[in-house]
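Researcher: Let's do a round of design. I'm pasting the structure tokens now; please hold your answer until I've finished.
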């Protein structure tokens, strides 16, 4: 009897282990590029209440890491691209960084479970050219050596997140997948380093960008719809964009001799604003399809990822938008930790759990004063949008249809909220009006910002965000310039 029980438990354990290896853990990216970030303690509560066991950071903010202490959440800390050159040049700089941002959080009982150090944030992105590439490998090696010196090499691994455009297939067939020619040598060096230290390859897979950049990829194919037309590659059939991109990567790795390296999908998601088909209902369909796909182990993946990180936890109103206005709207939750749609990270719940007891500024908005001469209102709106987030009123945004002067009011309010309701931030040469009547229209919500004590005021300047201003001028919005 005891022997049969032992064999049964052994079989169950083996099955569970196989499931973990096959499906991989699902975590989330937590970015903090927000004018009024949700307090770190609230975010950790949000992670825990939604059963999110792993989180990937883009820096090593002490407030964030202190909040994660004792949570038992697996953490990837990030090093910004701006530090790669100095880390490559000096092992001392690397040792100092590791001491300040890793070692100190391993001491004592209330430790942070740091698993990876992400050296750079997609430094091989094609638009960067050679800005960071020469420093990546040296920086990663110095960080790994610093971890070893701190006796942490067995617990923490240095990795380098690679971008969605680091690999490709001109024919569209995964079997022809390869790395970009300009980084092929660097990728061989990186993968040799990762293999030596038994570290995984971190990479972004982006069905959203594939859909927007490739006319042969349909929306249904991107959203895991069973009705989508399949793509064939020899004897293999691909029924969704994720599998197609992922196996393109696997073949790229095999082509340069690294067919066995573990893969972590470090970013994958679907934005909810700022572009065509970037909506909450579409994002819900995508994420439910992705989670179901990973959990059921369906599809034709050559080698499934060991971990997958959803992009992202929260919206960030100060993210760079050079890639598109949608980059500020990847969050599964809004900036204040409220769920955008029905979804769950675990089997114990069907819906997301919102952040609780969130503190907001008073219910006041800044709108255009219709009793004034508005001939200069559009220029004032451009001033506001040079500082504040106006991506929702640009083409493809959820508020792009509200027209003039509603879009002017949206711009005024964005700056007013960013400046914590300071009266002078609703002046605009006498064109602004503070109101307690919510000016939101249909699906266009005029936000009330979070009540935070550390947010900084911004003075409007037409020259601080010229790319956004150019978008305004070319967008065809009824700003009456």
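Researcher: That's everything. Go ahead.
Model: Designed sequence:
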């Amino acid at each position: 009897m005891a022997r049969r029980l032992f064999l049964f438990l052994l079989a169950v354990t083996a099955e569970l282990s196989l499931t973990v290896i096959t499906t991989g853990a699902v975590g989330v990216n937590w970015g903090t590029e927000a004018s009024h970030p949700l307090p770190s303690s609230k975010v950790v509560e949000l992670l825990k209440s939604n059963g999110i066991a792993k989180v990937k950071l883009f820096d090593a903010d002490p407030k964030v890491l202190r909040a994660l202490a004792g949570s038992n959440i697996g953490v990837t800390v990030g090093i910004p691209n701006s530090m790669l050159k100095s880390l490559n040049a000096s092992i001392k700089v690397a040792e100092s960084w590791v001491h300040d941002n890793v070692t100190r959080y391993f001491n004592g009982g209330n430790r942070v479970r740091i698993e990876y150090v992400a050296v750079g944030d997609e430094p091989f992105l094609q638009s960067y050219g050679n800005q960071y590439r020469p420093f990546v490998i040296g920086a990663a090696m110095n960080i790994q050596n610093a971890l070893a010196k701190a006796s942490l090499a067995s617990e923490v691994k240095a990795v380098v997140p690679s971008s969605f455009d680091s690999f490709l297939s001109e024919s569209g067939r995964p079997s022809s997948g390869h790395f970009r020619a300009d980084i092929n040598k660097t990728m061989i060096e990186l993968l040799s380093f990762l293999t030596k230290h038994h570290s995984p390859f971190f990479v972004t897979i982006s069905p959203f960008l594939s859909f927007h950049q490739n006319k042969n990829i349909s929306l249904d194919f991107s959203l895991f719809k069973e009705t989508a037309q399949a793509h064939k590659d020899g004897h293999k059939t691909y029924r969704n964009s994720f599998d197609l991109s992922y196996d393109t990567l696997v073949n790229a790795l095999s082509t340069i001799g690294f067919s066995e390296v573990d893969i972590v999908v470090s970013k994958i998601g679907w934005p909810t604003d700022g572009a065509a088909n970037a909506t909450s209902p579409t994002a819900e369909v995508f994420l439910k399809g992705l989670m179901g796909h990973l959990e059921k182990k369906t599809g034709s993946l050559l080698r499934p990822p060991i971990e997958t990180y959803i992009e992202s936890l929260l919206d960030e109103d100060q993210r760079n938008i050079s890639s598109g206005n949608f980059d500020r709207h990847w969050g599964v939750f809004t900036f204040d930790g409220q769920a955008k749609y029905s979804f769950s990270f675990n089997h114990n719940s069907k819906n997301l759990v919102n952040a609780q007891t969130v503190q907001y500024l008073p219910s006041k908005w800044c709108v255009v004063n219709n009793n004034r001469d508005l001939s200069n209102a559009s220029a004032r709106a451009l001033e506001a949008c040079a500082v504040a987030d106006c991506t929702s009123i640009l083409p493809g945004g959820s508020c792009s249809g509200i027209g003039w002067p509603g879009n002017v009011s949206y711009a005024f309010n964005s700056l007013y909220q960013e400046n914590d309701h300071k009266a002078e931030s609703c002046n605009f040469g006498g064109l602004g009006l503070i109101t307690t009547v919510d000016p939101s229209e249909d699906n266009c919500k005029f936000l009330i910002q979070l009540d935070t004590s550390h947010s900084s005021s911004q003075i409007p300047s037409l020259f601080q965000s010229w790319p956004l201003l150019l978008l305004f001028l070319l967008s065809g919005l009824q700003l009456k310039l």
